[in-house]
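User: Teach me something about this protein's shape.
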Amino acid sequence: MQTSLLSGKKKAFLIILISLLGLFFGGFRAFYGEQEWVNWGNRFLNENYDPAAEPKLKKYEITLTADHFIRLRKTYQQGKQEYYSFNLQRFAELSYIPGSATTDTLQIKTQADDIIVQTYEDPKGDVDSMATHWDIPVRKLSPLKLDSLKQALNFLKGKGL
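Assistant: First, the predicted structure itself:
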């Protein structure tokens, strides 16, 4: 007595097809977790920061840390260093300002004077100050990349510590 309307070959094909589709679509996750956003943010900042905007820059290090700080340390040819840092808990707004043919600016704004700005070994004297916005030179960005960065920063801001 037959218990299925499908033949054995069709039944096997259908089961294999459903299994493969399940594996294919099951491999994608709809949302990033915290560590994925931190990794993506680091990759974004390091790939898109444009050191060519400052010709006297010797080296730089830009990082999005696991404890939700964005930090940038710049060292110039004469030895002067600049250090910027802020916690994403204080993040308020991200703006994209078009610039020259190759370089644009990301402007990060915070709720108050929450961005730490320090200079070391500056001939004019070392300075410790606070700021409400931070301009970061970046290479030309697509709107999709910019939206992804906004999403990452807002997600990490919402995670809190």
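Now, about its shape. The beta strands are 57-64, 69-76, 81-87, 91-97, 103-110, 115-120, 127-131, 133-139. The mean pLDDT is 86. If you'd like, I can walk through any region in more detail.
User: That's plenty for now, thanks!
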